[in-house]
Amino acid sequence: MRIGPIGALLCRLLFLAICLPGPVLLAVAVTLDPRRSPADFWDLLAGDVLTTIVGIGFGVFGWRLVTRSRSDARRLSAAGVAATAEILAVANHLGGEDPGLELHVRISGPGFATFEADTIRADDPALVPGASLSAVVDPVDRLFSIT
Description:
- The chain is of the alpha+beta class.
- The chain has three helices and five strands.
- A five-stranded antiparallel beta sheet has the order 3-2-1-4-5.
- A hairpin with a 6-residue loop joins strand 2 and strand 3.
- The protein is elongated.
- It starts with a helix and ends with a strand.
């Protein structure tokens, strides 16, 4: 999936927003003026530390995912060669919120050895074994995109 510059900005802002609540809650818990009982303080501190770790983990993961996606798209635009992806097998893919088809394809073209790969696509009656699709491949590391 290609992410444009506006989409990348919005995704990064969202992932930044995921990172922020944990540290903010942690700072508030430590600096609150009315002192609580030690048990309440440690419970609050433990929850805030957990929220910080999980939020920052998800935020950094998402940020890196967007960055890698944009980098891959730029690399394919710069160094990609036209190729053909022949569908070898089709299976239903039920993962996540967007069910689709899992395709096993053989990708061939000039400048690289033919290889096989798996990809997920939206449901389409034209996606049957034997059908050919257009693809772009980076010959150096076999990064590909089916168009």
